[in-house]
Design a protein that fits this description.
Layout lengths: L5 H17 L4 H18 L9 H6 L7 E6 L5 E7 L4 E2 L4 E3 L3 E6 L2 E6 L5 E6 L5 E7 L6 E7 L2 E6 L4 E6 L5 E6 L19 E7 L2 E6 L18 E6 L4 E7 L10 E5 L2 E8 L12 E6 L4 E2 L5 E2 H4 L2 E9 L2 E7 L5 E7 L4 E9 L7 E6 L4 E6 L6 E6 L5 E2 L10 E7 L5
Helix pairs in contact: 1-2
Length: 417
């Protein structure tokens, strides 16, 4: 059988999709038809990833339940992809980004935070196939970590700085900053404290912006970056561009993204502290919760390192009865564990990778439909594992679903703050 050239499939799918819309057919049917067209496109030709055509941009970039995936080759570059976990579909759209990047969706846009050695913010428009509509630099070597949008301003946390930078939303020029000079660590085992506060992830609550400061000792005599000083959660007034309050964390070195979730009947900010991690690993931290109503920390850890058996690098909480954590122990064994936030008990292990196997886990996301996505950095078969938390945490795809390059960060394509 002779297959039709790709251009004919494009013409057919365009006309049929238009008819579906004119006749007001169920949107889900229209989407399924689009997926069918996508299948024929893939079967008919080898698509050039770097230069997807307009049809792919407009109709094949994502589904309503898709997630964003930052992928990397850990060398020359990375790609932003979209992945649909219910059908294990990876869409053709592939946007070039930095090899060291993380993503966030807010204000109807995808923000790619290109970190060290590119040091920029890349803004992608989902309505135009996630094409890049804006990119601006934050200063060579500043190593941006996260971005938050408020009115006409971008707030950007910088790992190699002692300030929270503020940029114009219109043109990306720097228009101000919130100084963290008073929050620098004052102690170092070398006797020479450094000037960076290692600001990382952020989350909004009303007009307040909460930002985590790790405050690591870069001049420590060990050569590593231990948390020799207390870490902070800083509350910023986004209207006045100034610090509202500083809260000392009960445990040091917060390293995960912040999850805003209702627990124990009230909204909390939840994040993981790892303390001493990696080659200097100690059992000294865990997942903690910050109660927004009274600005106080919950008295108990939601999941302690003593219970997990290692450093909790990432987590996702579904409710008070079920959460998931990515754990690295002192022997470099990687596990995905289920735990109960209400009691702090470990209730199961979904995945375990021994330390002598060259596979890491990067990217952890629980979707609103209850699918747990786990990124695997197996260089021979990288991809995303999908578990169903509604069916007893069963693994749905024993072979990880490919997203072309190695997944590094996974996030919701929804306005969450």
């Amino acid at each position: 059988m002779r297959l039709l050239p790709t251009r004919y499939w494009i013409q057919i799918s365009r006309k049929s999709y238009s008819r579906l819309n004119e006749q007001r057919i169920n949107p889900e049917l229209g989407f399924r038809f689009t997926l069918l067209c996508a299948f024929f496109l893939v079967q008919c030709t080898q698509l050039e990833i770097e230069k997807p055509n307009l049809f792919q941009f407009l109709f094949l970039s994502a589904a309503p339940s898709s997630v964003g995936v930052v992928t990397s080759d850990f060398a020359s570059g990375g790609r932003f992809k979209t992945f649909e976990p219910n059908s294990f579909t990876t869409f053709p759209t592939s946007i070039p980004i930095h090899s060291d990047a993380v993503g966030r969706y807010t204000n109807d846009r995808v923000f790619i935070v290109n970190r060290l050695n590119r040091d920029s913010i890349q803004v992608l428009n989902p309505q135009l196939g996630f094409t890049t509509e804006q990119e601006f630099g934050v200063g060579q070597g500043k190593n941006p970590q996260d971005i938050s949008v408020w009115n006409d301003k971008y707030f950007v946390s910088l790992y190699n700085s002692d300030e929270l930078a503020i940029y114009s939303r219109t043109n990306g020029t720097k228009i101000g900053a919130v100084s963290f000079t008073s929050l620098r660590e004052t102690f170092s085992t070398s006797g020479i404290p450094d000037s960076s506060v290692e600001s990382s992830y952020m989350v909004q609550e009303g007009s307040s912006l909460f930002i985590l400061l790790q405050r690591l000792d870069r001049n420590d005599v060990s050569g590593y970056l231990p948390p020799n000083s207390d870490s902070y959660l800083v509350e910023i007034d986004m209207d006045l561009n100034q610090i509202r309050a500083v809260y000392t964390l009960p445990y040091r070195n917060p390293s995960s993204k912040i999850q805003k979730i209702n627990l124990f009947g009230e909204p909390h900010l939840v994040f993981s502290c790892v303390g001493r991690v990696g080659f200097i690993s100690q059992i000294d931290a865990g997942i903690i919760a910050f109660r927004l109503s009274n600005r106080q920390f919950h008295p108990n850890r939601l999941f302690a390192e003593e219970t997990a058996g290692g450093d909790i690098l990432a987590f996702q909480i579904k409710n008070e009865e079920l959460g998931f954590a990515a754990v690295l122990d002192s022997g470099f064994t990687k596990t995905i564990q289920a735990f109960r936030p209400r009691t702090g008990e470990r209730i199961g292990t979904l995945l375990e990778i021994p330390g002598n196997i060259g596979i890491s886990l990067s990217g952890l996301l629980l979707t609103k439909e209850g699918k747990l996505l786990v990124g695997s950095t197996d260089f021979t078969r990288p991809g995303i594992y999908v578990y169903d938390s509604n069916l007893g945490n069963v693994l749905l795809n024993p072979i990880p679903s490919s997203v072309e390059l190695t997944p590094f960060d996974i996030f919701q394509l929804q306005n969450l703050q």
